[in-house]
TrEMBL record:
Gene Ontology molecular function: FAD binding; oxidoreductase activity
Domain FAD-binding PCMH-type: 1-170
PANTHER family given in the database record: XANTHINE DEHYDROGENASE SUBUNIT C-RELATED
Pfam families: FAD_binding_5
Taxonomic placement: Bacteria, Pseudomonadati, Pseudomonadota, Alphaproteobacteria, Acetobacterales
Name the UniProt record assigns to this protein: Xanthine dehydrogenase family protein subunit M
UniProt keyword terms in alphabetical order: FAD, Flavoprotein, Oxidoreductase
Amino acid sequence: MYDFAYHKPSSVADAVKLLAADPDARPISGGQTLLPALKHRLNKPSSIVDLSGIAELKGIRREGDRLVIGALVKHHEVANSPEVKAAIPALAQMAGTIGDTQVRNRGTIGGSVANNDPAADYPAAVLGLGATVVTDKRRIAADDFFQGMFTTALEPGELLVAVEFPIPEKAGYAKMRNPASRYVMAGVFVARTKDGVRVAVNGAGPGVFRQAEMEQALAANWAPEAVAGVRQSPDGLNADIHGSAEYRAHLVTVMAKRAVASAG
């Protein structure tokens, strides 16, 4: 680990000032990605801005037909929140399956969404539900936020402060995990909302993406059988020692069926 300066601001405004003053500064929330990178000397920030003391980044609340989750809310809090369970049960179920107990008690929703790991769970929920990412500067629609592997619409110094999830009529999530790393090999989040059906796929490719054919099939018939005949193309999907692109393409259909079944 390289030397760095350490800051712990108490407000979003102070955190943004620190990040703006130093282009090599990096924010940290749960540290599930940045800390391992620092330990292996894969990242060399000049300073670390610890967000954990900022109260305005915490909390879960319902505002009309939307569920607002602060960036610093931990996975285990989402999994056990009465508000989340009542409004979007699939989101609580998803949070309860992220990583292991240690990860769920340290990792945060804001860190996961901002990092945009292709195998992370939350990006699928954000895209699948058509959520809005709220920063210190603006509001970004899910369809515009995720731009590729570890790449988002966030600008340098811009801080993610909350995620707003519209409450769906039905939603479900299913994934196939690598038994060793527990990262997602293929996952599918499905949602039926007042604006239509959305299907988001994570883990299978270099980034989270929507599956338009499945959306059309489910819009016509909300049932597992509707997506059973939809075949995901393996073109552009991940291929490694854990599974070929063709295998992951098959998993997308299987996980979609399970996700719809879990949604009811």
